[in-house]
Design brief:
Length: 290
């Protein structure tokens, strides 16, 4: 595995790979790697060679009162893990490589970026799309791999990639969960023992939605009322939002018809967590993927 710190060298390596007609795959991350990231890497390795994993804690996607300073930075351990997995390249640039002095540009996907996570974290998706566009320009991957846990992020990145004809195919991979259902996240490291127990309420409420839909419930108001009731009853957890939205437009839906998502965000102690379920029509019924 080769560890690359500069944009110039990363561009060179990627251009060489493209010249030899290889299918280059990119897994963008902020490091502090867990099994969720590793599942993206394995999927990338199944579909592509070479595989580049980027590790960059992107300051532009954190609000002024968010956890940019304390975000876990574990480059040495991450690089060793990726080396063991047989990853070809790790791109870990310092901030000034990505945002040199005088950097002024931002990219925004209108309409999808200011709702849900975007309403609670103003500017967050503008930071995400700006860095992802920059990474795509540097690496020019044929495929890029993202987790479904960040469902709104994946939707926005797919929109940007299509709108700007970037030529990168976005692959969205399943959520990886702990045995008790908690979705893996680098921020789970912030949870105290009691927060950790309480945090499973997100998964439990989504499992409740799945049960209710299997029993024939189709009324979104009713489904969301059950979710809110369960989350609000959990000590130490405060719900930010629970919405059922169309998977494409991210507009709220009132009845289940097309593919849609239940999107949740809550603060558990002082840690903000998100989770979601995908609801897809299947004949007369619906498949709910958590
Ligand atoms: O999902 C993440 O880890 C980040 O938002 C990403 C896509 C690496 C951009 O910084």
């Amino acid at each position: 595995m080769e560890l690359i710190h500069t944009v110039a060298w990363m561009k060179q390596v990627a251009a060489d790979a493209r010249r030899s007609d290889r299918l280059l795959g990119l897994v963008p991350t902020m490091g502090a790697l867990h099994e969720g990231h590793l599942s993206l890497v394995r999927e990338a390795q199944r579909q592509c060679s070479p595989v580049v994993v980027s590790i960059f804690v992107n300051p532009k996607q954190f609000g002024p009162s968010e956890d940019f300073q304390k975000y876990p930075r574990t480059l040495e351990a991450d690089a060793a893990t990726l080396d063991n997995l047989g990853v070809d390249y790790v791109f870990a640039p310092p901030p000034e490589e990505i945002y040199p002095p005088g950097f002024r540009t931002a990219v925004t996907v209108e309409g999808l970026s200011d709702r849900l996570e975007g309403r609670s974290r103003p500017g967050h998706f503008r930071g995400v799309t700006t860095v992802v566009l920059k990474l795509f320009e540097i690496v020019q991957p044929r495929f890029a791999f993202f987790g479904r846990k960040d469902a709104q992020q994946a939707r926005i990145i797919r929109q940007m990639t299509g709108d700007l004809d970037l030529g990168t195919e976005i692959v969205v991979c399943p959520i990886v969960r702990e045995p008790d259902g908690l979705a893996l996240s680098s921020r789970n490291a912030y949870l105290s023992a009691s927060d950790r127990r309480a945090a499973t309420v997100l998964y439990r409420s989504l499992a409740g939605v799945r049960r209710e839909i299997a029993a024939g419930e189709r009324d979104v108001v009713h489904l969301l009322a059950s979710v809110r009731k369960m989350i609000e009853a959990e000590p130490g957890v405060s719900l930010d939002y629970a919405e059922v939205v169309d998977a494409d437009s991210l507009d709220p839906v009132i009845a289940l018809r097309k593919t849609c998502c239940v999107l949740l965000a809550a603060r558990v102690g002082s840690t903000r967590l998100i989770d979601n379920a995908l609801i897809e029509p299947a004949g007369d019924s619906f498949n709910v993927t958590i």
